[in-house]
Write a structure and sequence with these properties.
Elements (H helix, E strand, L loop, with lengths): L1 H6 L3 E6 L5 E6 L2 E3 L2 E5 L11 H8 L2 E8 L8 E12 L3 H13 L15 E13 L2
Length: 134
Amino acid sequence: MRRRFTAARVARLATVRPDGRPHVVPVCFAVDGDRVVSVVDDKPKRSAELARLTNVRAQPAVSLLVDEYDDDWTRLWWVRIDGTGVVVDGGADHAQAVALLATKYAQYAHYRDDRPSAAVLAVTIERWSGWSFG
């Protein structure tokens, strides 16, 4: 499960809205030991204070899901991690997350770590679950 999760290029991040409803968005991510990190990147956004960050600050329970779909259903699989998220706005943990993402994604190679909007979401993994056809 760890190998498949780590190699995936995109995860779906699920957080809990203030009204208790789920909020799901695709994210780039990197695995760092028993943590998963994602950063608010340079793609255009309405605001630097994204719903996912607001949600995690209020309710830190999160899930991340990666999966593989193929019309040949013998190749199907999914892996989900459940954990506790925190928003990191600076410091060594922030710099480490950005470095990990730059290693995994070429788009982060020139990423600036000094932007105030560049919050990192760090999720401590508490549970792994998954499924594959065979």
